[in-house]
Amino acid sequence: MIPFHFSQISKGDKQYSSYMEEIFRIRFKVYCEEWGFEDPTAYPDGMERNEFDEKSEHFVIQSTHDNSIIGTARVIFPSELGYAVTKNCLIDPMLHGQLLSGWKEARIGEVSRLAISKEYRKRIEDNVLSGLSSDLPDVNSHEHEKRKCNYVHEFYKYLLFQSMELGLTHWYVAMKRGLYILLKRVGMVFHPIGPEIEYHGLRTPYLGSLREIREGMLQKDPNCFDFIKDLTK
To answer: Is the dihedral of CA 141, 146, 152, 155 positive or negative?
Structure first.
């Protein structure tokens, strides 16, 4: 039995507030205590959150044992606040414009605040998400990589489907090089739109077409989305 499933946190759920508190506590533990990306003294209640959370849809990995949240990510939607990536990274307007040329009504979301509880992370996930090491599995070690990275790969697949269902056409993502390479290996192709800068470690801003990402993954593996069907509620 698969020990986890994915869910979107509905704002209309009567447990919405308690779910969000659990999400913010996981983010505090990962982003403040474990990786040191955020200053823990800025969140005296032990919950890491910011202004973009109200403009986002939140997604979680939950244990099938007790339904507890073991991982989370958000997708920031278009709003008057803009996006975290465009506020914290340097965006090249020419690269950005070229990637959106031909799109009359591009609707962009930003994937951010991906956090997975330490006890469920593997070494490779720590490496690519936190940048603690530049080591990556050998490109030929497909089975090893698949086994090690189910949480990250499958969660991104779920976010892809949900984002397309919610009407998004593109994603912004600020990624470390290791995560970019790992996702590219399974066909998730993103395009750089600016230089690498210091932002929660060295990160590069990327823009990706959700349609192109989906097609790229299917070209790599026509059955790549079969596994995700068993992980959703």
So the answer is: positive
